């Protein structure tokens, strides 16, 4: 047995994120962002950051996300919220349904804003959990998804999906045999 001290620092909070964008390419922009800070022990929200963003262009995929140019007309640009949002994310483990997509857009927006941020570690409920769309994953786990393709609704559904996945993982833990 080792004499090394036990690691007693509390685990970092999770932050469930979702973005709505003008499209799918690297040149597209974020038009809405939602981030929910989650206590890893209680799985309850302990903070949130939700806003529409002016993309400095048209809102693009309005037929998907329902966000019009008029809706974002008086919204902040990403650069205006970048420092505050970076502080909100700092030290937290990112969670998203298709984390690579959301993280890619966040990295590009932070770079455009001139704000350095290491997104750190993350958990993708799609690649590490369900391998299906958010809507189908929610249906499979009995989670209501009202307002799909809006950032806050999708982030809240992803949070509930994270809870379902962690409960499943906990239930599947077996005794260690020595």
Number of strands: 5
- Let me know the CATH homologous superfamily: Ribonuclease H-like superfamily/Ribonuclease H
What is the residue-averaged pLDDT? 91
Class from secondary-structure proportions = alpha/beta
- Discrete helix count: 7
Q: How many domains make up the 3D coordinates?
A: 1
The strands making up the biggest β-sheet line up spatially as 3-2-1-4-5
Main sheet, how many strands, which sense, barrel?
A: 5 strands, mixed
The CATH architecture category equals 2-Layer Sandwich
Task: Work out the radius of gyration.
Answer: 18 Å
CATH topology: Nucleotidyltransferase, domain 5
- Termini, distance in Å? 15 Å
| CATH class division | Alpha Beta
In what range is the share of β-strand residues?
Answer: 15-25%
The percentage helix is 25-40%
Shape: globular
Helices and strands, in order, run as EEEHHHEHEHHH
Unreliable runs, pLDDT <50, ≥5 residues? Answer: none
Secondary-structure map with pairings?
Blueprint: E1 14-21, E2 30-38, E3 45-52, H1 62-65, H2 69-72, H3 78-89, E4 93-96, H4 99-113, E5 122-124, H5 126-130, H6 134-140, H7 151-171
Parallel strand pairs: 1-4, 4-5
Antiparallel strand pairs: 1-2, 2-3
Helix pairs in contact: 3-4
